[in-house]
Amino acid sequence: MDNLFFVLSKLVWGLLSPTSLMVWLLLLVTLLLWLNYIRVAKRLLLLMSLIGFIVMGYPVGDYLMYPLESRFAAPEKLSEPFDGIIMLGGAEQLKLSDSWQKAQVGDGAERILQTAELARLYPDLPIIVSGGSNLVQRQNLDSDGQVFQQLFSQAGIDASRLVIEPQARNTYENFQRLKPLLPKPAGTYVLVTSAFHMPRAVGIAKKQHINVIPYPVDYRSNHANNRYWDFDLPAHLAVLETAWHEWLGLTVYFLTGKTQSWFPQATVKIDKTDE
């Protein structure tokens, strides 16, 4: 079932991402023109032009992204004791790393930087890292976690502290696969991932009975005073795509029982005796 869920999620995203939807609409307009449905085609073209102009000119994706990123605040100080640091993969670029035989990162590199900083602040704690290839055609990329080892080595973190789980293809599998690797199953762990991704990650952690302290990083949305017309289509589209993907993920994960709630809130420590 996990394989089916993974493949279907990729197919659905290929159909429902904002960019894909615009391409499907363009194909539909082309078909309508060929069939001589001129009036309907003109209306669709007008709609597409208006949406495209607005997305190009103004950061509308921020309105979808900001609620995700503001759901959890990064702790000003980690006062309560915890047993390790969990980092979810996503910053590493496995296909590029494989192509150039050197660890590459993309968006979300703050996950690695913040985890490395926490590792230096708490030198006695293990670092549990989960993330594998999310490519349907290359699911065995970096199956031994060499990219993670290179990146943390470059950040000055000793490899002996790393507990790497390199097979997870999505957020559900992250927690499913890292759970048996936790040094203290009933312990508490700082969770580092992108701010937009934190609600879904916390919801899955709760469902898997893993106690986490959210530590969001890698913010993508602007506050209201920094939203203005600047006609930066690539930047606007990147935020819109990411936010839309995450809201779809929250919805699908909730409907399939992988999270306890649709839009998870602050985590509460779980008492293992209640399981």
From TrEMBL:
Record's keyword terms, sorted: Membrane, Transmembrane, Transmembrane helix
InterPro entries linked to this entry: Cell_Envelope_Assoc, DUF218, Rossmann-like_a/b/a_fold
Domain DUF218: start-end pairs: 83-249
Keyword set includes Metal-binding: no
Top-level lineage group: Bacteria
Parts of the chain that traverse the membrane: 12-37, 44-66
Protein name: YdcF family protein
